[in-house]
């Protein structure tokens, strides 16, 4: 299949990235960071999560963050919601788009959201119903599609089944999560082929972490399958609390550089993305975490 002409990027650094930071990050820093992201041309920004603050303290201020940012018209500000309680908090905060998130691995589901896969689907159904009533769009995420920190390889049938059930429940898009970044390109292709039998490829997104440095290659492989929505994280922020050593999502700057080289439109300004990356890296007291961002900063100086 030919590569897509354009790709939509969902920037997840402010959520998937910052959720793993052990240091307290003031809401004001998150707000400034998201305001910079909003000026890059990104059309989708995951700004937070309405999850248990005991489990993920870093996301406890998501309402404050949403209230504080300058919402640019045309940009979609999205958040994770694990259950009805999270939905109510998101609704009260004024969120218009949410993600429910399950897993294709029983052990990961238990660790991450404290229930089995079947129980998670039972929890998500009323969230989808409530969202529909309030005109809120729901995305579904499936973790561990290219490996689980507890169970290793996950059956393609289970991945396809969970994806199909979320899609049937009303999720307009299914994000396929290589949560611990262990995938490789042919495996990624096979996985997308398996899911695409049940969910149209136009409704799939690739959410790949980069632990083993394979994420760009994996993305290229699934672009060839027709996937045209990519989750990425500025500066490659992030990790996985349940997988020792797992690193962040593929870095947005690296994805932008690759897509530009392939002649694929994103509408995102690379230099502004690097500026946002520099801002957040400085705020966290570390060097910028993307190869393309680092190379650009060296060239600038
Ligand atoms: P639980 O303990 O089973 O929940 O957690 P519960 O319903 O028994 O409630 C226990 C307590 O939590 C109660 O409070 C509830 O009110 C409270 P208490 O009475 O003890 O004071 N509570 C909440 N508080 C605020 N917001 C809520 C909420 N729900 C319950 N929404 C639960 C179940 C799902 C809530 C919990 O396990 C949880 O929050 N998990 C989220 C973990 C998480 O955020 N992980 C990271 C995101 S997933 C990810 O990164 C993967 C992804 O990027 C894709 C990929 O890479 O593959 C998306
Ligand atoms: Mg993730």
Q: What's the order of the H and E elements?
A: EHHEHEHEHHEHEHEHEHHH
Report the β-strand fraction as a percent range: 5-15%
Helix content: 40-55%
Please give the count of helices.
Answer: 12
Task: Provide the residue-averaged pLDDT.
Answer: 96
Order of strands across the biggest sheet? 1-2-3-4-5-6-7-8
- The number of distinct structural domains comes to 1
Helix and strand composition category: alpha/beta
Query: What is the annotated CATH architecture?
Result: Alpha-Beta Barrel
CATH topology: TIM Barrel
Low-confidence segments: none
CATH superfamily: Aldolase class I
Return the CATH class: Alpha Beta
Bound molecules: 3-hydroxy-3-methylglutaryl-coenzyme A, magnesium ion
Q: Judging from the principal axes of the Cα atoms, what is the shape?
A: globular
Distance between the termini: 41 Å
What is the CA-based Rg, rounded?
Answer: 18 Å
Main beta-sheet strand count, sense and barrel state:
8 strands, parallel, barrel
- Strand segment tally: 8
Q: How would you concisely characterize the structure shown here?
A:
It contains twelve helices and eight strands. With 301 residues, the protein is α/β, with parallel strands linked by helices.
Structure description:
This protein has helices at 13-17, 27-38, 62-68, 84-93, 106-113, 117-133, 156-168, 185-196, 215-223, 252-261, 270-284, 291-300, and strands spanning 8-11, 44-49, 76-80, 97-103, 137-143, 173-178, 204-208, 229-232. The chain has 301 residues and is of the alpha/beta class. It has one domain (8-300): Alpha-Beta Barrel (TIM Barrel). It has an 8-stranded parallel beta barrel, surrounded by 7 helices. Helix 2 (27-38) packs across helix 3. The chain starts with 7 loop residues before the first strand and ends with a helix. It binds 3-hydroxy-3-methylglutaryl-coenzyme A and magnesium ion (MG).
